[in-house]
Sequence to fold (174 residues):
Amino acid sequence: MGRISARERRENVIRAAIAEFAIAGYRGTTTAAIAERVGVKQPYLFRLFSDRKAIFVAALVRSAEGTRLAFERAADGVEGGEQARQMMADAYAQLISTRPETLLMQMQGYAAVAASEVQGDDLIGEVVRAGWMSIWETVRLSLGADADKTASFFACGMLGNTLTAIGLPLGAGG
Fold:
């Protein structure tokens, strides 16, 4: 087996970080746990990333981009409206059922924004908000640039996220 490039190793670290942060959150995840999951020594992480926060930020960016791409691909070639909404909803349900760490990483990101901003650190909030706006814009354009339909799509999605995160079936909301 050949050597793994720094770029591939960085990708492995981001995937491992998403899995670790999704479970334990920003404050509860150590670089040692990420390194162990990747199969490298902890100091190697700091050749790729300046610190744990930089790893968390990369994980947040990747998670948001993965969600955005799922919506974009689902709606590609679909002529807006109800069909696009359904295709994106199905794609998201598939994404979080096959990669539950995606949903958990989102939730951890939202919680980390509040915790970090209370301490005067705006970077995590800026990253999470930029990711959210990118996802919002992708969905809005796929739904024919209709703000009300976009808000409704996300309202239903966030209810689904909450129910899934707390272990209730999707129909439990009423």
